[in-house]
Write a structure and sequence with these properties.
Oligomer: single chain
Shape: globular
Number of helices: 9
Mean pLDDT: 97
Number of domains: 1
Number of strands: 8
Strand content: 15-25%
CATH superfamily: Metal-dependent hydrolases
Largest sheet: 8 strands, parallel
Helix content: 25-40%
CATH class: Alpha Beta
Structural class: alpha/beta
Low-confidence stretches: none
Strand order of the largest sheet: 1-2-3-4-5-6-7-8
Radius of gyration: 17 Å
Length: 263
């Protein structure tokens, strides 16, 4: 059974001391692929380096909405060049986050739209971040649509209406460890049943969002724990784990255009 952690941040310094062990634990858990999502120009450089030096790791380039206020055309020009690296398979994570407002809305929207344009130009799939945007995120991707755009809504936590809209746009949906959490995951456990099988992805968002049962033992999330998320998903959907794993693996590789020889 092969699993793909479609969204993690193992370039974070919290993994520096035991990075090799983190990869070994992931492999032991059946996690054979990992996508390191970009946040800033600095983190992207590290992510690409890790992907180049480690089997089964891939990277996405982009500027997170939290960091939109420090984004510039110069940064995007550099990211665009880095996107030509064969280990770079997506643009992101990008989007809107009106929860903490680490960057003003005007900056978030400006650089979100600009990055949509670049990703479309490069024909790269997108990794989307949305939190508490009150419909604005959906409005922007619908207004600034592109016929051949593909992407994934990372860490989905919206409403059924949002979910249906994303599916209608041809997007994939990333499921995190939230699905394993008793109270917080209640709505997600119901909504996941409405996601078409060929649009499902699993992810950790490591080092954040540690799933149960690991959450009770360790605070830091890591790619190996995506197995717990997957097993809960399999249980909820009442699907054979082997078959579902194959479907989710194929979904991830299809979205990111990753070929078998790249593993």
């Amino acid at each position: 059974m092969k699993l793909f952690d479609s969204h993690c941040h193992i370039d974070d310094k919290i993994f520096n001391k035991d990075f090799t062990q983190v990869l070994k634990r992931a492999s032991h858990a059946g996690v054979k692929g990992m996508m390191i999502a970009g946040i800033t120009l600095k983190t992207v450089k590290n992510a690409v380096k890790l992907a180049e030096n480690n089997h089964g790791l891939f990277a996405a380039v982009g500027v997170h909405p939290h960091d939109a206020s420090s984004c510039s055309e110069t940064d995007l020009k550099t990211l665009k060049k880095m996107a030509s690296n064969p280990k770079v398979k997506a643009w992101g994570e990008i989007g809107l986050d009106f929860n903490r407002m680490f960057s003003p809305q005007i900056d978030q929207e400006k650089w979100f739209i600009r990055q949509l344009e670049i990703a479309d130009e490069l024909k790269l799939p997108l990794i989307f971040h949305e939190r508490d945007s009150n419909g604005r995120f959906l409005q922007l991707i619908q207004t600034n649509s592109h016929q051949n755009r593909t992407g994934v809504v990372h860490c989905f936590s919206g409403s059924k209406k949002d979910l249906m809209a994303y599916i209608d746009l041809g997007l994939y949906v990333g499921i995190t460890g939230i699905i394993t959490i008793k109270t917080r995951g209640t709505d997600l456990r119901e909504l996941v049943k409405f996601i078409p099988a060929d649009r499902l992805l699993i992810e950790t968002d490591a080092p954040y969002l540690t799933p149960a049962p690991e959450k009770n033992k360790i605070h830091r999330n890591e790619p190996a724990f995506v197995r717990s998320t997957f097993l809960k998903l399999s249980e909820i959907l009442e699907q054979d784990p082997e078959k579902l794993a194959a479907t989710v693996w194929d979904n991830t590789c299809r979205l990111f255009k990753i070929q078998p020889h790249e593993f």
